[in-house]
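notes to self, project folder thing:

trying the whole complex as one job this time. last attempt i did each chain seperately and stitching them together was a nightmare. two parts in total, labels are on each line so i dont mix them up again. if this works i'll redo the older ones the same way
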Amino acid sequence: MDTHLKETRLDGKLAYDGGFLKVTRDRIALPDGAETHREFIRHPGAVVILPLFEDGSVLLERQFRYPLDRVFIEYPAGKIDPGEDPLACAKRELQEETGYTATDWHFLCTIHNAIAYSDEHLDLYLARNLTAGEAQLDDGEFLETFRASVPEMLEKVKSGEVTDVKTVIGTFWLEKILDGRWSPG
Amino acid sequence: MDTHLKETRLDGKLAYDGGFLKVTRDRIALPDGAETHREFIRHPGAVVILPLFEDGSVLLERQFRYPLDRVFIEYPAGKIDPGEDPLACAKRELQEETGYTATDWHFLCTIHNAIAYSDEHLDLYLARNLTAGEAQLDDGEFLETFRASVPEMLEKVKSGEVTDVKTVIGTFWLEKILDGRWSPG
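result (full assembly):
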């Protein structure tokens, strides 16, 4: 049905294979038959965890993000390992980064964060019934955690203190869930 | 204050210079002094336009996104030209992609969509008092437009039909503005 919009791959190659980023460059046909190229990052996908405590507060991280040369406030998140189940990844990342485990998990939504140049998707999960434990950060991973209420997080979104898209979207979803207007799972 | 989190550039280079994507690879020092590398995309930044009509409906686009091999529902958006003012870019992109011009513009927020591997930011603008005109799509640009109400867009976010982050966040902001809880500008 979308043939008037669709772009078709003709051929392509891995144009850059870095330790972390891989760039694919494809020759494609546009809807009108003209040829051009598309370059994009191949990404395995990621998960985002929204850890919600009984008192309505959420667990957040402060982490330095090199491309933007500053610390960001974020929900815990991580890349999916090859073949890994997304929910298993969410449980693993929450425990590794924060030490917390949770017994009540609900998938909320999938988001696409850079559709012009990456195939990355992020799956957001709500995690409740949390128990504290010992974090096990990867080598070279540095972060600190803190708690905030959802209204405090919304204020940070509104004021521009929180700008990371997964964290902005997770906060809006949490407001809907706590208001009872949207239900998880 | 964030020296316990900060990563410091030692040296680096442009590791991949494609027609569209540019990858920087830097050697860095971690907070504990250990050395590693960071790879990321340099991006000029982009704008997103939320065109809101008097009747409460918004203008959207359907566009094929090659990295994910499907059509996405999105607000009008575009990359900032070198030296271009973001608001001027928003006005230009709205007119080029949809034909519409607007006389009432308000900056809403900046978001960062891929902080692990891109320095991209997106500035969201509310555009009101809209007048229809003739679109002037770039060569190789194919899209169609449609109108939807904000409640319809929220339902598409909830159901997973809308997954593009700028469009998810723009829709949540529009709900806040139409409810009178957040005010633009």
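what i see at first glance: Chain B has two domains: 8-42, 46-178.
need to look closer tmrw
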